[in-house]
Design brief:
The complex is a heterodimer. In chain A, helix 1 runs parallel beside helix 2. Among the domains of chain A are: 83 residues, Translation Initiation Factor IF3 (2-Layer Sandwich), CATH 3.30.110; 117 residues, RNA 3'-terminal phosphate cyclase, insert domain (Dihydrodipicolinate Reductase, domain 2, 2-Layer Sandwich); 55 residues, no CATH class. Chain A is of the alpha+beta class. Chain A contains 9 helices and 20 strands. Chain A starts with 9 loop residues before the first strand and ends in a 12-residue tail after the last strand. The longest helix of chain A has 17 residues. By secondary structure, chain B is mostly helical. Chain B has a domain of 89 residues. Chain B has 12 helices and 2 strands. Chain B has a two-stranded antiparallel sheet with strand order 1-2. The longest helix of chain B is centred in the middle third of the chain and has 33 residues. Classes of the chains: A alpha+beta, B mainly alpha. Chains A and B meet through strand 9, strand 12, helix 5 and strand 13 of A and helix 6 of B. Chain A: Keywords: Nucleus, Ribosome biogenesis. Chain A: One of its GO terms (molecular function) is RNA endonuclease activity. Chain A: Its main location: nucleus.
Chain lengths: 404, 313
């Protein structure tokens, strides 16, 4: 790609917010150079396996990207190409990209890859159809704080409707898995189908959070008894039913995923992947704002299901109490799509704690670094605690769809 | 505080009583109205008095019976008030009532989501917020149609009728022409007879019916083959002529042959006859007939092209 050469490389340092920067680089088409990635670490300098896997994914869904590492992996130059999606002939087989997550990637949930991929998908030239699989594919919530694939489906993907992106979006959880302990592997399988590409997302004005009118959820048990689900659900409903009587939590029981046992004596053999249980809760307000909470059993086990259910319910209440129209885990999606929208001011009400969190602040800084205009902040007024964040779109939108 | 409150109510009550006191004798001069009723002489006297009174002033509308009931009710009310206040004063001495929230297990369990909702939420698509309000939506649409002014609904009706007429116009014209040729001209706009059947068929097709109701379902195979061949030949001829004349026609729709489900599986190691399923070889009636063979050789029947009678699927 010769086009981005006209602009100088954007320079960043440090390993923090690496994924967001790579995402913004791909969206805006700016080449970036990230240096000093964990350069002070003696044991694990450079990129982690998860970050490398994310770079591979970006490479798979784009055409013409170039990625250069330094010898130690502490410096990275990324020149993004055109987002082509899972077009035939570019790594996709039968219109599907199969992205394997290796065993080392199991520290993060699969949502760590899916959420940014979803942000890229509307701006893709062709359809997006990616299957995540492998020993590092964790569909449940993880102790690292990643949301579960269920929450992505029920709390993140519906947000795209606000931007006029709603057709042919699916997230199929083909095989469930929980966060594995040390020495174990996950072995989940998730398919993301995102076939609604747009030229420009609609301008968003979301100012009124409304009142929470219903709570839905999914309790999942993988390779453990389904009674765990019932106990989780009962504990969660015991807390939530008082506030919202319209509370339903569905139960999903599945067997443990099978992963190949890398055994020399038994080359075709399989063994069970990680087991566990968890819950994903989503609250919907009268103005279709979504708040979610996730909790799953720790890989070490030993936590009763009642505790998990209660913690998830309390977490949901906390997220709702932070106010605003978006929760913390959805801010990246909303703000990126607003920033990529038409040259118009979009407004979004956010809770003070949400805006004040480190990730959101850094996202704002990175966005302005990538050529976006700064955010405008003002009080929501009328005794409300929220802030109204105004984001101006870049007006570039989908480069691959310019002609169409 | 309670003491003060009682005081005020007392005074109020007193006042009310004093205000009512002059009224009561005016309605019923005797202190007990029941006595007045029973005694006829007293009643006469009362009538005389009343007439005299009414001659001087306005006529009175008095029902002594009702009056009695009212007074009784009032007494009861007063007693209630009295007891109420004493109750509150005693409440202060008692300890506070403990509130216990009780959500029973069974109550939680028997609330089940509907199957539709489960499907909507647990499918691979992101759940839409409008799914559970299906019933509400229906209701709303109904009410809106009710609320609409009659002209709107009549417009809609006329619109539908017009669409139907446009759709059927060619049928009607042909029917009218034939009718005119034969007998009196049929100028009515409603289709009758065969034309009506055709119009119904068109409507069904427009609504998404797979095949026309006039399409003949069963006919001899040679017959059908002939029809299909003729249609194909006609189409080919049309295309050929258009090509020669340099006319660009619509793109040809290629019919895919798909009979995968019906076709007999011929995997390696499968049975040469019948169906092997669940450790059992199943023979259909036709298979048995083929084996016992009063229809001739099986393999010949399969291979023979011209033999229309040996129909194997």
């Amino acid at each position: 790609m010769t086009e981005p050469e006209a602009q100088p490389l954007l320079r960043f340092t440090g390993h923090r917010h690496l994924r967001t920067r790579l995402l913004l680089a791909t969206l805006t088409g700016r080449a970036i150079r990230i240096s000093q990635i964990r350069s002070t670490s003696h044991t694990h300098p450079g990129l982690t396996p998860t970050e490398v896997s994310f770079l591979r994914l970006l490479d798979a869904v784009t055409n013409g990207s170039s990625i250069e590492f330094s010898m130690t992996g502490t410096t990275l130059v990324y020149r993004p190409g055109l987002i082509t999606g899972s077009s035939e002939g570019l790594g996709a087989i039968g219109g599907v990209i199969r992205h394997e997550l290796h065993k080392e990637c199991a520290s993060r949930g699969v949502s760590w890859w899916i959420v940014p991929l979803c942000i890229l998908s509307p701006f893709s030239k062709g359809n997006m159809n990616v299957v995540f699989h492998g020993e590092g594919c964790v569909t449940g919530a993880t102790p690292a704080g990643d949301i579960s694939a269920d929450t992505v489906r029920t709390a993140i993907l519906p947000l795209y409707r606000n931007f006029g992106i709603e057709r042919n979006i699916e997230l199929r959880i083909l095989k469930r898995s929980c966060a594995p302990g040390p020495g174990k592997s996950a072995g989940g399988e998730v398919q993301l189908v995102f076939n609604h590409q747009v030229r420009l997302p609609k301008t968003l004005h979301l100012m009124n959070p409304g009142r929470v009118k219903r709570i839905r959820g999914v309790a999942y048990a993988v390779g453990v008894s389904g009674s765990n689900n019932a106990r989780v659900i009962e504990a969660a409903r015991g807390v939530l039913n008082k506030f919202v009587p319209d509370t339903y939590i569905f139960s999903d029981v599945s067997s443990a995923p099978l992963v190949p046992s890398n055994d020399k004596n038994n080359p075709g053999g399989k063994k069970k992947g990680a087991v566990g249980f968890g819950i994903s809760l989503v609250a919907e307000s009268s103005t279709h704002c979504l708040y979610s909470a996730d909790m799953s059993s720790p890989p070490t086990g030993g936590t009763p299901p009642e505790d998990i259910g209660k913690q998830a319910a309390y977490q949901l209440l906390e997220v709702i109490s932070q106010g605003g129209c978006v929760e913390k885990s959805a801010v990246e999606t909303m703000v990126c799509l607003m920033a990529m929208g038409s040259e118009d001011v979009g407004r979004l009400a956010m809770g003070r704690d949400v805006v004040g969190s480190e990730d959101v602040i850094q996202l704002g800084r990175d966005l302005s670094e990538f050529g976006g205009s700064g955010w405008g902040l003002r009080d929501a007024g009328e005794g409300r605690d929220d802030l109204i964040v105004s984001v101006v779109g870049r007006g570039v939108g989908n480069v691959g769809r310019k002609v169409a | 505080m309670p003491a003060l409150a009682t005081m005020t109510t007392r005074t109020l009550k007193r006042k009310r009583v004093t205000r009512e006191e002059p009224e009561q004798p005016s309605r019923s001069p005797t202190p007990s109205s029941s006595e007045a009723e029973s005694d006829s002489d007293d009643g006469k006297l009362q009538d005389i008095f009343r007439k005299a009174f009414e001659a001087k002033f306005k006529p009175l509308d008095v029902e002594p019976k009702k009056q009695k009931i009212e007074t009784v009710v009032e007494d009861v009310e007063e007693e209630d008030e009295e007891s109420d206040w004493s109750g509150i004063s005693s409440d202060g001495d008692e300890p506070n009532v403990e509130v216990v929230e009780y959500t029973s297990r069974t109550q939680l369990a028997n609330e089940r989501a509907s199957k539709a909702e489960l499907r909507a939420f647990m499918s691979s698509k992101p759940p839409t917020s409008s799914t559970p309000s299906l019933t509400q939506k229906k209701h709303k649409s109904k009410s809106s149609s009710d609320d609409d002014d009659p002209t709107e609904s009549s417009h809609l009706k006329n619109d539908l009728a017009l669409q139907k007429l446009l759709r059927d116009s060619h049928l009607l014209s042909s029917a009218a022409a034939s009718a005119a040729a034969s007998a009196a001209a049929n100028t009515s706009l409603t289709a009758t007879g065969a034309a009506r059947h055709k119009s119904t068929d068109l409507q069904l097709l427009a609504l998404g019916a797979k095949t026309s109701i006039h399409a003949q379902k069963s006919m001899p195979m040679a017959h059908r083959k002939g029809i299909i061949a003729k249609a194909r030949e006609r189409e080919e001829k049309r295309r050929k002529e258009a090509r020669e004349a340099g006319i660009v026609l619509e793109r040809e729709v290629k019919v895919k042959k798909k009979e995968g489900g019906k076709e007999r599986e011929r995997g390696v190691g499968g049975p040469s006859v019948g169906r092997f399923k669940g450790g059992m070889l199943r023979l259909s009636k036709r298979d048995v007939a083929d084996i016992t063979g009063h229809r001739g050789d099986r393999s010949a029947g399969r291979g023979g092209r011209g033999n229309g009678k040996s129909r194997r699927r």
